[in-house]
Design brief:
The chain is an alpha/beta fold. The protein has two domains: 231 residues, Spore Coat Polysaccharide Biosynthesis Protein SpsA, Chain A (Alpha-Beta Complex); 123 residues, 3 Solenoid (UDP N-Acetylglucosamine Acyltransferase, domain 1). It has seven helices and 33 strands. The strands form seven sheets. A seven-stranded mixed β-sheet has the order 5-4-1-6-11-8-12. The radius of gyration is 22 Å and the shape is elongated.
Length: 362
C-alpha cells in the first residue's frame, strides 16, 4: 500500500516560522507533524510513502532526523518554475505510485486521527474513483464542503463557500483514497487544484464518495490552530522526559518538555506550555499558552503568554512577550523589551527597542 503526502505549500500564514521550515516539520508536542503522519500510516499497513515537495521542503525533510516507522520514503519534486497545486503533484508522481492498486493521498499540513484502513475499505466497497475523508466543523466556509446522499455518494462538492452559504458542515479532512483512473483527470505539467477542478467534476459524474470519521482533526495552517493542536495533545500524552530544575519551580499542567530542558528557581510554567529540546528557562520566568522550539534561551524575570517561539531564540532579562507574538528562528530580544500582542519577528532579527503595536519586523 502506498500513500502520497502533499508537502509543497509555502505556509504563508505561519510566517516567520515557515520561512525556515516547511509546515510538515512543525513540532507537535515536540515531534514533527510528518513523524506523527508516518506513525499513523505504518499502523494502517502502508509500507511506502511518496512525498510531493518543492526543493526547499525536500531538503529540509532529508536533513531532519526522525523515525520513518519502517516506511520506505521517496520524493517527487515540483518544478521550481511553477508549483503544481494540490492535483498536479499527484500526476507528477504517477510513475512512483503505479497503477496496481488504490492509494492514499494526504495533505501534509493536517493532523488527523483517521483510520486509513476504514477509509480504504469504504472506498473499495463503494467502487468509487475517489473517496474523501470528511469531518464535521462549526465553521465550514474555510474548507471544501460536501453534501452526501444516503449511500455516501457526494452529490455536491463546493470548495470554500461564502460564509453562511455552506450546504453542510461536512468538510474535506485532507485525506483521500484514489484509484489509478484519477491520473486520466489530471493534465501533466500544469497547476491543478484537485478540490476545485477534479473533485467537483467527479461529483457531477457520480464517482466521488465520502467517508465520515469522528477522530481528532486539526488544520495547522494558522498560528491559533497550531497552538490548539498542541494544547489538545498535551492532555493525551503521559510519557515525558525527566525535567532538570534548580530550586522550587511551579508546573501547571498540561505541559510537555523534551529532553534537556532546564528551568531555574521560582519560575512558573504552564498551563499549555511546550518546551522543545535543550530549552533553558531562567529564574522567575512566567510562561503559559506558549510553544517554544528547541535550543531557545529565555532569561530571568521574563513573562510570555500565548506566543510561538522559534528555534535558537535568545530572550533577554525582564522581556514581556504578549499573546499572538511569533518569533522566527535565531531572533534576539534584548533586556527589558516588551512585544505587544500580535508582533511577529523574522528570523535572525535583533530587537533592541520595545514594539508596542502589532506589526511584522522583517
Amino acid at each position: 500500500m502506498k500513500a502520497v503526502i502533499l508537502a509543497g505549500g509555502f505556509g504563508t500564514r505561519l510566517r516567520p516560522l515557515s520561512c525556515t521550515r516547511p509546515k510538515i516539520l512543525f513540532p507537535i508536542v515536540n515531534k514533527p507533524l510528518l513523524e506523527w503522519t508516518f506513525e499513523r500510516l505504518a499502523k494502517h499497513n502502508v509500507d511506502e510513502v511518496i512525498i510531493a515537495a518543492n526543493f526547499q521542503s525536500e531538503t529540509a525533510m532529508k536533513q531532519h532526523r526522525m523515525s520513518h516507522h519502517g516506511l520506505k520514503v521517496k520524493y517527487s519534486r515540483d518544478p521550481p518554475s511553477e508549483p503544481l497545486g494540490s492535483g498536479g503533484p499527484i500526476k507528477k508522481a504517477e510513475r512512483l505510485i503505479g497503477h496496481e492498486d488504490s492509494f492514499l493521498t494526504l495533505n501534509g499540513d493536517v493532523f488527523a486521527d483517521i483510520s486509513y484502513t476504514e477509509l480504504l475499505e469504504k472506498h473499495r466497497k463503494t467502487k468509487a474513483l475517489a473517496t474523501i475523508a470528511l469531518t464535521k466543523v462549526k465553521e465550514p466556509s474555510r474548507y471544501g464542503v460536501a453534501v452526501l446522499d444516503k449511500n455516501g455518494r457526494i452529490q455536491e462538492f463546493i470548495e470554500k463557500p461564502a460564509k453562511g452559504k455552506a450546504p453542510s458542515n461536512l468538510i474535506n479532512a485532507g485525506a483521500y483514497a484514489l484509484n489509478a483512473e484519477i491520473f486520466e483527470y489530471i493534465p501533466s505539467g500544469k497547476k491543478v487544484s484537485i478540490e476545485r477542478e477534479i473533485f467537483t467534476k467527479l461529483a457531477q459524474e457520480g464517482k466521488l464518495y465520502g467517508h465520515v470519521f469522528e477522530g481528532l482533526w486539526f488544520d495547522i495552517g494558522k498560528p491559533e490552530d497550531y497552538l490548539q493542536v498542541n494544547r489538545t495533545l498535551m492532555n493525551m500524552i503521559s510519557n515525558r522526559p525527566k525535567l532538570r530544575v534548580k530550586g522550587k519551580v511551579t508546573i501547571k499542567n498540561p505541559v510537555a518538555f523534551d529532553k534537556g530542558v532546564r528551568i531555574a528557581e521560582r519560575s512558573v510554567i504552564g498551563p499549555n506550555a511546550v518546551l522543545g529540546k535543550n530549552v533553558i528557562i531562567g529564574k522567575n520566568v512566567h510562561l503559559k499558552e506558549t510553544t517554544v522550539f528547541p535550543q531557545t534561551v529565555i532569561s530571568d524575570f521574563c513573562s510570555i503568554n500565548g506566543a510561538i517561539i522559534g528555534d535558537n531564540v535568545a530572550i533577554g532579562k525582564r522581556a514581556k512577550i504578549e499573546r499572538g507574538c511569533i518569533l522566527g528562528d535565531h531572533v534576539k530580544i534584548g533586556d527589558n523589551i516588551t512585544l505587544a500582542a500580535g508582533v511577529s519577528v523574522c528570523p535572525a532579527k535583533e530587537i533592541t527597542k520595545s514594539i508596542l503595536t502589532s506589526k511584522n519586523i522583517c
